[in-house]
Amino acid sequence: MGNIRMLGTSATEPQYKCLRRWLTKVVSFILIVDDVNDLYGSLEELRHFTNAFDRWDFREIEQLPGCMKICFQAPYLITCQIADEIETENGCKLVLPHLQKVEGRYICRPHAH
Q1: Which of 53, 48, 77 is CA-nearest to residue 65?
Q2: What is the three-state SS of the chain?
Q3: In whole angstroms, what is the distance from residue 60 CA to residue 46 CA?
Q4: pLDDT value at 11 more than 70
Q5: What is d(CA 40, CA 6) in angstroms, rounded to the nearest whole number?
Q6: How confident is the model over 17-75, as pLDDT tens digits?
């Protein structure tokens, strides 16, 4: 989490407004998912929840309670939007798999980094 916070505070120039917006969304989801991990779900549900983020796989959330499904679906959709914006603005391709890999590490395991 410290690395993400540091990146956001060092990108203060106007040309980094998209980066700050994207980081705000990602950090917000990290905090929400961390709270869900702490407050909801059995150990088995949390395994599926974590696996869903590790693999970005909707099949992992089929057996989860509604609040946990939403906490997977919202970051998934936002990550797709961020990847699309980066690809459109910069002409890059294949951004989504890289974002998913990085976010998967932080979203369900924010304290491990």
Answers
A1: 48
A2: CHHHHHHHHHCCCHHHHHHHHHHHHHHHHHHHHHHHHHHCCCHHHHHHHHHHHHHCCHHHHCCCCHHHHHHHHHHHHHHHHHHHHHHHHHCCCCHHHHHHHHHHHHHCCHHHC
A3: 10
A4: no
A5: 30
A6: 888 888 888 888 888 888 888 888 788 988 888 888 888 888 989 988 898 899 899 88
92 C-beta neighbours (distance < 10 Å), count:
11
CA 19 → CA 7, 47, 64, 79, distances in Å?
A: 9, 31, 32, 13
Kindly tell me if the per-residue pLDDT of 113 is higher than 50. Answer: no
The position carrying tokens 């946990």 is 68
User: Residue 45 corresponds to which tokens in the numbers above?
Assistant: 């549900």
Q: What token pair was written down for 24?
A: 């705000």
Q: Which tens digit of pLDDT belongs to each residue from 61-90?
A: 998 889 889 989 988 998 899 889 888 888
> What pTM did the predictor assign?
0.74
